[in-house]
Amino acid sequence: MDNKLLEILVCPLCKGPLHYKKAVLELICKPCRLAFPVRDDIPVMLEDEARRLPGEEEV
């Protein structure tokens, strides 16, 4: 994942910052508790494709 791209990407819902979890290839939005997948180095920024983070999962 390109660092310059990470600097400009924001959550499509709340426009907040995203945190990249390289180990699981996801971009995490802490306020929305959503994990957006990264496939072939391309972030999939669709709400329908995002995984809801359970309350006990650390973000």
From TrEMBL:
Q: Name one GO cellular component term.
A: cytosol
**InterPro entries under this entry?**
Trm112-like (IPR005651)
The record, for SUPFAM superfamilies, names:
Trm112p-like
Name the family the entry cites. Answer: In the N-terminal section; belongs to the LpxK family. In the C-terminal section; belongs to the UPF0434 family.
What's the protein called, per UniProt?
UPF0434 protein ED236_06380
Q: Which organism is it from?
A: Pseudomethylobacillus aquaticus
Lineage, top ranks: Bacteria, Pseudomonadati, Pseudomonadota, Betaproteobacteria, Nitrosomonadales
